[in-house]
Amino acid sequence: MALRIYGDSISGNCLKVKWTADRLGIAYDWIETNVLTAETRTSAFMALNPAGQVPLAVFPDGRPLAQSNAIIFHLAEGSDLIPGNAFDRAKMLEWMFWEQYSHEPYIAVARFQVLYLGKPVESLEPRLIERGADALARLETQLQRSTFLVGDKLTLADVALVAYTRVAHEGGFDLSLYPAVEAWVGRVEADLGIR
After folding, report:
1. Is the pTM of this model over 0.85?
2. Which is deepest, 79, 81, 134, 194, by most CB within 10 Å?
3. Which residues of 12-44 are buried (b: 16+ CB within 10 A; e: fewer)?
4. What is the pLDDT of residues 117-171, one digit of tens each?
5. How many Å apart are CA 111 and CA 169, to the nearest integer?
6. Residue 1 confidence class, pLDDT cut points 50, 70, 90
7. pLDDT reading at 92 higher than 80
8. Could you tell me which residue ranges the GST C-terminal domain spans (predicted)?
9. What is the β-pairing status of strands 28-32 and 3-7?
10. For residue 156, which of 193, 194, 108, 188 has the smallest C-alpha distance?
């Protein structure tokens, strides 16, 4: 049995798992799991992941692993996507933890509300937009200093953060205000072979 990845193609968290597996040449079966129709809430899915969330990786031996950044870290173990230097590795993890706490909850939520719930940007909670803009400004500051988030080559930090940054405009964020971020998105997309 191959690695199975349960994911919804509208989700940046799911796509980052797909992109990592593709970049590393890891064979897998993608199982499209629609969150909008509650496919993650079925008893069969909940038996695999009681949290009822995608992405979910189920390894050939049957062990499940949830949470996008945990999955990509496991998949990339020993690869060039994880720095060999201990401090650089810790900086990569710092960005990945920050992504889930200070970026994704604002950028991804605004995108979901606008794109999938049909809300006008003007109706979104102002704090959501402020925090999202703060996250993009934080990325801009870093990317004015370095080619990628941790030095001069792609790491999992870039994979994790590009997932929702590249589609931030769908949530009402103007990426042209962040030229270093825009250029970085292009570099990461090129390296991962995505568009």
Report:
1. yes
2. 81
3. bbbbbbbbbbebeeeebeeeebebeeebbeeee
4. 999 999 999 999 999 999 999 999 999 999 999 999 999 999 999 999 999 999 9
5. 8
6. confident
7. yes
8. 85-195
9. parallel
10. 188
- Per-residue pLDDT tens over the stretch 7-53: 999 999 999 999 999 999 999 999 999 999 999 999 999 999 999 99
Domain edges within the chain = 3-76, 86-192
The encoded tokens of residue 21 equal 């597996």
Contact 153, 89 (CB under 8 A): no
- 3-76: CATH topology: Glutaredoxin (3.40.30)
- CA 5 vs CA 28, 62, 128, 132: distances in Å: 7, 12, 30, 29
Pick the CATH number of 86-192 from 3.30.450.20, 1.10.10.10, 3.30.70.1020, 1.20.1050.10: 1.20.1050.10
Q: Which residue is it, tokens 């704090």? A: 127
